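User: Please fill in residues for this 206-position structure.
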């Protein structure tokens, strides 16, 4: 089962590429969704987060106050490290379970792990291929302001909090340039899908 990592900075168009690959038949495992799932109401992860950061991070309906927790840890490297120590192991375990389930359902399935924090947390996993969605920081900043309603300062802070583009690009087997029009990104995703058998064979032969 080919296992492909798809990563990119915030507002890089990574999810657009994932959706296009899914249309071609790839099985998409979404790291952000796994994070939401493992810290759902009543979960051990949510209990551990509350024990570490205070019970007020749990809303009245039992769910995590994601915005409240985010504002509490954002910009605090020690707090982020403590949060990651709780969440990352659970995400790793659940993603492994989903990879294995996909392989069990179809041994030939191409599984794409849509993972923002590849460089930070999952680089050592046995990826057949690493695909990086890349757009210049100024383009991503414009998207965060125009499409997500962030202020210019908040958008800049979000981008600055992630690993530098250079570090992410250095990991790439394939770079999809997402700085242009949507159709150009989709065209590159289509080309990537057609090229996957060759790219995977080349990677395995190294």
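Assistant: Residues filled in for all 206 positions:
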């Amino acid at each position: 089962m080919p296992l492909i990592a798809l990563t990119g900075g915030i507002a890089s168009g990574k999810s657009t590429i994932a959706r296009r690959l899914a249309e071609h038949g790839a099985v998409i495992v979404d790291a952000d969704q796994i994070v939401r799932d493992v810290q759902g109401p009543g979960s051990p992860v949510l209990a551990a987060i509350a024990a570490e950061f205070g019970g007020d991070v749990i809303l009245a309906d039992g769910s995590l106050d994601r915005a409240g927790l985010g504002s509490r840890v954002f910009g605090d490297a020690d707090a982020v490290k403590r949060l990651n120590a709780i969440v990352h192991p659970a995400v790793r375990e659940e993603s492994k379970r989903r990879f294995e389930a996909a392989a069990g359902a179809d041994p030939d399935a191409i599984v794409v792990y849509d993972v923002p924090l590849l460089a930070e947390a999952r680089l050592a996993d046995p990826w057949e291929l690493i695909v990086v969605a890349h757009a210049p920081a100024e383009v991503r900043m414009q998207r965060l302001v125009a499409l997500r309603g962030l202020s210019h300062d908040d958008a800049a802070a979000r981008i600055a909090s992630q690993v530098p583009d250079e570090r992410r690009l250095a990991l790439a087997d394939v770079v999809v340039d997402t700085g242009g029009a949507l159709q150009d990104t989709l065209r590159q995703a289509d080309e990537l899908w057609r090229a996957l058998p060759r790219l995977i064979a080349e990677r395995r032969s190294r």
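For context: The chain has two domains: 1-26+110-201, 33-97.
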